[in-house]
Amino acid sequence: MSDAIESILKETRVFEPPSAESVGAPRWLLGSMDEYRAMHRRSLEDPEGFWGEIARELHWFEPFDKVVEFNPPDAQWFLNGKTNICYNCADRQVESGHGDQPAIVWEAEPVGDGGPETRTLTYRDLQTQTARFANALKSLDVKKGDVVTIYMGMVPELAIACLACARIGAVHSVIFGGFSSQAIVDRVIDAKSKVIITCDGGWRRGTIVPLKENVDNACATLGEQGHAVDHVVVLERCENETSRHSRDRDWHEITQAASEDCPCESMDSEDMLFLLYTSGSTGKPKGIKHTTGGYMVHTYLTSKYVFNLVPDSDQIYWCTADVGWVTGHSYIIYGILPNRVPTVMYEGAPNHPGPDRFWDIVERHKVTQFYTAPTAIRAFMKWGEEHPGKHDLTSLQVLGTVGEPINPEAWMWYRKHIGRDKCPIVDTWWQTETGGHMLTPLPGVTPTKPGSCTLPFFGVDAAILDDQGNELPHGSGGLLGIRGPWPGMLRGIYGDRDRFIDTYWSRFSANDPRYPNPTSPSPYYLAGDGAKRDADGYFWIMGRIDDVINVSGHRLGTAEVESALVSHESVVEAAVVGMPHEIKGTGVAAFCTLDPDFNPDGHDAIESLKSTLRAHVGTEIGAIAKPDQIRFTDSLPKTRSGKIMRRLLRSIAAGEADVHQDTTTLEDYSVLAKLRESEEG
Ligand code: WTA
Hints:
globular, 21 helices, seven-stranded mixed beta sheet, 3 domains, GMP Synthetase, Chain A, domain 3, binds 5'-O-[(S)-ethoxy(hydroxy)phosphoryl]adenosine, alpha/beta, Rossmann fold
């Protein structure tokens, strides 16, 4: 951690915000840093007033009678208010006379002679299509509170499926289309879900991802484990032949048979909206629980101010994330649609058919807000500046990044080659658990520094804490903690109260004299990230402090990858750590000890076992988890108390520790381990 602090301290560049005129923005919603500070202060001192006013900009069937109640770790927002987030995304825009405006602008991956297929859905289309599909779900006996699993490609029907669930009060659990059938099995069981919505396939870099086949395989395993899936709704997308089962329902058939009259269910503000599974430091993914009102208000307000959304001003917003991640939930669908600025959904890969595909999309659709991940930016850098250079990107007003720390070099490249040295960059720090942005610059107002996510958003009280939970002064690094509740915060881990408290709230409470009841959770939410605040109070995220690694902006629990490895017959024990990776930021390095029966003999056998194991992890979790580096060892280096020496493994993986690299035999770390142990005492 001290290295990270050092390298960050060297960054001294500051970029003052540009004028709205110079980037072609209609106006900046905030006028000055003083205005930001005043609003931020009020949001903390008077949350009732601040959030109450914002919430009332949206539609409620019945008003809330209290804004917030917090008994750590449990918060409730907009108590007793009744609303519906689908209503606020679609129906409200139609009711106010904007039904014909574009809501979703979709572009397919395949590029034919006439260019790629595109589809625009107006708010009215969105309203009628979600209503129809919602009725179709009802015809499958889906009821309020039921969990519906969604495993689809990036097609408009994915947004429709989510919104349709919200419309009738069903809870959606979206699983990223890049995950394997085993990932579906685990999540369907945990969520007790009986209905899965999928596609025959999804387009990705010119090939078809076998989504339906993965669901079929998952259903077979689920069946063996006594969990029956009642219905699998299949949307035909790729004319991909798949096997048919009696549980299959055709999307178009059931939708055409359904009426478009389906009023939005009146949902309590604290009714569950969705579950989204994310990695933790143990093997089992956590179902992060989000509810309706607070999440809606938080994503609405952050979308508005962080991206500077101004309706009726020809803005076109594009977030390149997949809806399978929280970024897609919050900043393709739920936060953007209530702001009445069209949201672009792109189906495929950034380099199909060529490495300029994103810039081609920006140019053709005249995208004004562009939100992507550092890993993508590093890939663009590698592919070369000539690709954005071929396109007119002058429509862009605001650039955003999310998912992992952005290195200053990538930040500068983004600013120069995409943002023509002008567009403000909003580096947004947040998590699946926070629901929406927490630390972020506001465009046109916040001076930015390459690599810093700058300052807290309204309502966010963030601090750097030491190991005992004391707040540290500016200039020091430590644990990133959030004091008090915020509207979009998670309401728990589905079905696991203890894990919720242990993971986020318990680090300081035990035996701490400041907390009268030593078993009561501390008032700090702990994000699991290390961070530093500089002399100006700016936050710099240094990365995860637990056994979670952030690969291409996607969280992976090292324990998950380890358990995938040991589920292969050849592996007895595995340890997985992160290692520096040029494009992904962090790569996956795996150290395995083998069953003697499987000991590979010679270089070729070793390489072939490595590819078998990589493929195995791909099947168990998904391609993103495939190790970049696998090493076989006689025994894993452990301390006397039996703990795996992860720090040593990290430096071996990073090429820092001196190990003899004979690729024809197993590696032996025992000497190194003994050495380290004597150094570390
Ligand atoms: C990391 C993604 C640095 C961080 C929205 C966090 C970031 C984890 C940033 C959450 C950022 C996200 N700068 N690190 N701007 N944004 N992270 O749940 O480690 O997929 O804890 O949510 O990503 O990942 P998640």
